[in-house]
Amino acid sequence: MGNRTLAIIKPDAVKKNLIGQIIKKINEAGFNIKAMKMVRLNKDSAGGFYEVHKERPFFNNLVEFMSSGPCVPIVLEKDNAVADFRTLIGATDPAQADNGTIRKLFAESKSENVIHGSDSDENAALEISHFFSRKELLENYI
Ligand code: CMP
After folding, report:
1. pTM for this model (two decimals)
2. What is the pLDDT averaged over residues 74-94?
3. Residues in a beta bridge with 116
4. Cα(132)–Cα(6) distance, rounded to whole angstroms?
5. CB 6 within 8 A of CB 117
6. Which of helix, strand or coil describes residue 90?
7. Runs of H (alpha helix) within the chain
8. Is any ligand 1 atom within 6 A of the Cβ of residue 62?
9. Residues in Cβ contact with 2 at an 8 Å cutoff, skipping those fewer than 6 apart
10. Strand, helix or coil at 132?
11. Domains of the chain (ranges plus CATH)?
12. Average pLDDT, the chain
């Protein structure tokens, strides 16, 4: 079964039609998709998701950007999901990201960096609950 992490394909990547290419990389790296949707965050929801960064100088820009268009949250499962996904996406700043990582391939800047990945198992659980109900995670009924 493995562990879970939350990925978000961010609004810049959705606008550039990169959803398919990014999901292909994620699957090729051995992650299974457990739940996925396309949503547009409002500022309150984006601010709530990034609450831990609210004192940072980039917080307002981050909230503006994350609410600027639809994004695609995805629940992923794999052994060692959190750490392996952060390796796959690369450093926050694409200029510092390793070759072959998703940010190196597709991102243009530290603030518009195409993808998010949870940074701990505890935050993964919190972040998953921000986007997905128990019903969506366990049953997939509509
Ligand atoms: P993410 O992994 O989604 O988590 C916090 C986000 O803040 C990060 O990716 C970046 O996109 C964004 N961010 C914007 N500016 C900065 C910055 N100067 N330093 C770190 N993160 C930043």
Report:
1. 0.95
2. 98
3. 8
4. 10
5. yes
6. coil
7. 11-15, 19-28, 43-49, 59-66, 81-89, 102-106, 121-131, 134-138
8. yes
9. 32, 77, 78, 79, 80, 81
10. coil
11. 3-77+88-137 (3.30.70.141)
12. 96
